[in-house]
Specification:
Elements (H helix, E strand, L loop, with lengths): L8 H38 L7 H8 L7 H34 L11 H14 L6 H22 L6 H23 L4 H12 L7 H19 L2 H7 L3 H6 L4 H23 L5 H13 L6 H21 L7 H22 L5
């Protein structure tokens, strides 16, 4: 019988120090990201055609009446900034959930067709059904959930393989894009302008009525995903290993998919599909946090920072104003091409 050698005290001490360094780095990154999100949000409230000093902005946020600033900051900039944070948190959290759960960097909602489902339903509702406001948002949420369950069902064969789900999702997304293009050929000028918001992602004209459903969804659904942190981490080791560790694999996967899709659906209903935020947030968070540990919170903060910065750049950094989705699309498309080329050179699959 072979004796099992216990690790030496020096080895145990070295492992403990390494874990401590990773934990310290993670806390530092989360703190820095949080400060950056608050700082950029403050900048979005101060900067515009009229600059308002921090004191005036703070007074407006606290509910005081400040001539000029109460309307510009309180009614225009503050809802826009809050929605940017809420949408970024939702997209980042949902994207890294899919990527972690399916162990595939391409498995984000905007790549595999879920955001396309919400957009296609919204455009159809605007152009064909003449819907507006809450009715369009409700239809978009229902469609995103329906498309996600359809993709999951088509990809399920004694479990769900990440590559199979990605390929099916890309195919369904392409079909939905064709539907959108056909519907747009029938759109009048006013409907066409409204539909474009659902295709590019925009924070223009944001109101508190649009912010509230997305904010409530984030408050309800984010804790559900954070409660699955351990199970999602186990899924990264493979289904068999996760099962051996006591994780109910398919139940965990279904809960994570439905919850993440809910976040994407409500955020998309509020501001349209802001391209590539879900796709980029996880890889960026992984680079700054380092190996090991859950990426849910860092990726959510990276998502919020991406949307805030992209919105500022779109408004003031390019000479003319662009929707936030155009800026994030410019950032995300090259990374998508790079990822596909790198995967191909490595001889792997999607």
């Amino acid at each position: 019988m072979t004796a099992v050698l216990a690790p030496s005290a020096a080895t145990v001490d070295a492992v403990g120090r390494a874990r401590g360094r990773r934990s310290s780095r993670r806390r530092l990154v989360i703190t820095v990201l949080s400060v950056l999100v608050v700082g950029v949000l403050a900048a979005t409230l101060m900067v515009g055609r009229t600059f308002y000093p921090p004191g005036d902005v703070l007074r407006v946020v606290l509910g005081e009446q400040v001539p000029g600033a109460s309307f510009t900051v309180g009614r225009l900039r503050l809802p826009r900034g809050v929605l940017a944070v809420v949408a970024g948190l939702s997209f980042g959290l949902a994207g890294v959930t899919f990527q972690t759960m399916l162990r595939n960097p391409l498995a984000s909602p905007d790549v595999i067709g879920i955001s396309s489902g919400a957009s296609a339903a919204a455009v159809f509702g605007i152009v064909v059904l003449s819907l507006s406001g809450t009715a369009v948002s409700t239809l978009a949420v229902a469609a995103a959930l329906g498309v996600a369950l359809l993709i999951y069902g088509l990809a399920y064969r004694n479990g769900v393989a990440g590559s199979r789900l990605v390929l099916i999702g890309i195919g369904i997304g392409a079909m939905l894009t064709s539907v959108v293009n056909y519907v747009l050929t029938r759109a009048g000028q006013w409907d066409y302008q409204e539909a474009l918001r659902w295709l590019t992602g925009s924070l223009n004209g944001t109101t508190w009525e649009a912010v509230l459903p997305a904010l409530v969804a984030l408050a309800v659904l984010a804790p559900v995903l954070l409660g699955q942190t351990r199970n999602l981490g186990a899924l990264q080791l493979g289904d068999d290993t996760a099962s051996a560790l006591g994780v109910r694999v398919e139940r965990t996967r279904l809960v994570a998919i439905v919850t993440a899709v809910g976040l994407v659906a409500f955020a998309t209903a509020a501001c349209g599909p802001i391209a590539f935020v879900s796709f980029l947030a996880g890889p960026i968070a992984a680079r700054v946090v380092g190996p090991n540990g859950s990426l849910l919170v860092p990726a959510a903060l990276v998502g919020a920072l991406l949307v805030l910065v992209a919105d500022l750049v779109g408004q003031f950094g390019l000479g003319t104003r662009f929707p936030v989705g155009v800026v994030t699309g410019v950032l995300g498309a090259p990374y998508l091409i790079y990822l596909i080329i790198r995967t191909n050179r490595a001889g792997g699959s999607l």
